[in-house]
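Posted in: Protein Modeling Q&A

I'm a second-year student putting together a small comparison for a lab meeting, and my supervisor asked me to include a predicted structure for 6,7-dimethyl-8-ribityllumazine synthase. I've never done this before, so apologies if this is the wrong subforum. The sequence is pasted below exactly as I got it from our records. If anyone can share the structure token output, I'd also love a short note on what stands out.
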Amino acid sequence: MGMSSHTFNDDTATNTIRLGVVVAEFNGEITSSMLERACNHAKELNAEIRYICYVPGTFDMPLFVADLLSKDDVDAVVTLGAVIKGETMHDEIVALNASRLIADLALRYGKPVALGISGPGMNYEQAVDRINPVSTRAVSAAVNMVKRLRMLRSKGKGKDNGKGIDSNREDAGGTIVIR
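Accepted answer (user: helix_wrangler)
Welcome! Here is the predicted structure, written out as tokens:
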């Protein structure tokens, strides 16, 4: 017996996705390039960057992330930082604590926070190599999460996903796939 499913694929969302970006100033020669690429990628995805907030370092991000998530004109936050290995385990402490707190904030506010933080355990050359992939993937993740959450949250409210599928309709035992 096969399972019935509905796939909601929202590539035609008409609502602008509004982003906040938190950028670490530490390793600024890397993070400034990350910010430039993130801004360009947001434009390519038709997302609007409403806020760009600079913090001293990656460890300092959670406070600004929380403030941005509390704003009505922010749908998601993108974090940009580079945590480079030194002679101690400091890079691991910074990256692990910041990422844990950032993930907790996403859950508390019910809004996506994309982790555009490279490291720990990398050297300067590795950080440079990761400028483009980390920053663009973070923006893509934030935009895609907002779109998918909008589809999920509209389920049961009679909204159309843009492809003529009524999200209220569910077959007995049906599965709804949001992609």
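A couple of things worth pointing out for your meeting: The helical segments are 28-44, 61-69, 90-109, 124-129, 131-154. The mean pLDDT is 87.
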